[in-house]
Every structure is written in structure tokens, then in C-alpha cells.
Design a protein that fits this description.
The chain is an alpha/beta fold and 290 residues long. The chain has a single domain, classed as Rossmann fold (3-Layer(aba) Sandwich), CATH 3.40.50.11550. Helices cover 42% and strands 17% of the residues. The chain contains eleven helices and eight strands. It has an eight-stranded mixed β-sheet, sandwiched between helices. Helix 1 crosses helix 3 and helix 1 crosses helix 6. The longest helix is centred in the C-terminal third of the chain and has 27 residues. The chain is globular, with a radius of gyration of 19 Å.
Length: 290
Amino acid sequence: MKYLLFISFIIFNFDVFAQDLPSHYKVYDVKKQKVIPLDEVITDMHQADVLFFGEEHNDSIGHILEFTIFKKLAEQFPEKTALSLEMFHTDVQPVVDEYLADLISEKNFIKEGRAWSNYKDYKPLIEYAKTNKLAVIAGNAATRYSNAVTKNGLTVLSGFPKSSLSNLPPLPIDTATGRYLEKFTELLGGHSMGSMKVYQTQNFWDATMAWSIAKFAKANKGIKILQLNGRFHSDEKLGTLAKLQKYAPTLKILNISSFSDENFENPNWEKHKNLGDYIIITDPKVKRSF
């Protein structure tokens, strides 16, 4: 009983804050070239299968919007909505499933599921999924594989035993060139050997998340999937989103790029129009989650 009251308290507090939420964010529809209410994104999902939410990991408003969107999707598509997360690894999917089924404690879930240090930002979504019996996809690559790729390159994956393959995307994994590589080198400041190993790891993360979504979508026809990841993974429809298009070309995908903007009062939408189907800017005056 206490547990149920606690979950209700979390969702209630998010709902209360959501009443004031519109003053702290703006949603721009790139195709329509205008600011729209958040509900229009939900309406557009009638014609799509997957919605990427590219976040800044410490954006408080962004996290509340993620919860709001997930809840609205679940209400619009009852029992036909799932959550996919960069923040959990494929090898802990059984732990996630056990927690959603109320078979293990939250303490065990956080420890054995290797939850991020800012799990509090994602907890309301997990609890909502648990309460409403919605699937959660642990989408990202386990750290042990990522570390191996960073050290030895993508080719190291072919040496892992068959028992590991269920946690990995199809091999070999292509390394994206063009605009994605250009953005990455701008971010890291050059083409050093070390940065290229890290870039292979970036592509490994993208491939793993994309494959996790593709597998789930194939096994669960008609389910609307909300994918949460750092926005570099999906901005400009690159990264994870591009790899998902390769793995599952028939899926219809929409993407949101969400970030805090110092020009919140007078945004330059033209500057951001290439980032996604929707641009969400959040109020920089709101305190970051960490």
C-alpha cells in the first residue's frame, strides 16, 4: 500500500508541475514552420512507429517532458506503447523485466540493473511503465563490450563467444562517415587515433540501440516506441536513428531534439531546423537536474 501511494505521489507531483510546464518550453514543428502544442506530436504518432527524444541528460524540463510524452502516448495508445532507453544495457533486460513484474526490489533493480547515477530523472517513466504494464527496452551496449571496442576497435566483437551475441547487434558494424563523422570530430577536436577508437564505440552504441528497437518492433507489431537518448545520437536523423532506418526500413520514425536555449524568449528556429522533426527548447533559468 505504501509503495502504491509513493508511486501515485511521484506521478501526482509530475502532473502538478506539468500544469506550469508550458511556460518553460516551446515546441517547434519544422515541417509546419510554427510553434505547436505538445499534443500535436502525440497526434502525429498515429502515422509513425518510433519517436526519438534526443535529450540533454541534465535538463530538468526535458525529463519532465519525456514523462509527459510517455504518459500521453500510453493514454492515446493503450497497451500499445513501449519505452526504450539508452540508460540501460541489453544484458540487464532480465533485471528490468523482473522489476517491472514486481519480482525484485528497487534496490536490487538499481544495483543489478546498473542504473545511471541520475536514475531519479528516469524513475517516473519506469514506475509509470510498471504500474501500467508497459514494456521497457534496455537498449544500449554493455560497458564491457564498449570498453573492448574503445581499446581494440569494432573488429574485437567478432571474437566474442556465441553466448554473447544475443547482446550484440549484427556483425560487422558499419562506421558512419559523412556528416556524423564530421560532427564527432568537431566535438572531439580532430582525427586522432584515440578519437577514432571512441568514434567506433559511438557507432557501436548507435547500432546496439537501433537493433534493440528493431528487434522489439518486429516482435511487437503496432506498438508505439518512445526512445530516449542523448541528442547527439539522433540529431539530424543521424546516429542511432540512421542505423534503425537501416535495420528496419519500413518503420516510420519521428525525432525530437530537445535542449536548453539561452535565446528561449526569442528563439532562432531557422538555426535549429536541421536537427529534427520537432525542436524543443527549454527555459535556461530552470535548475539543472545535476
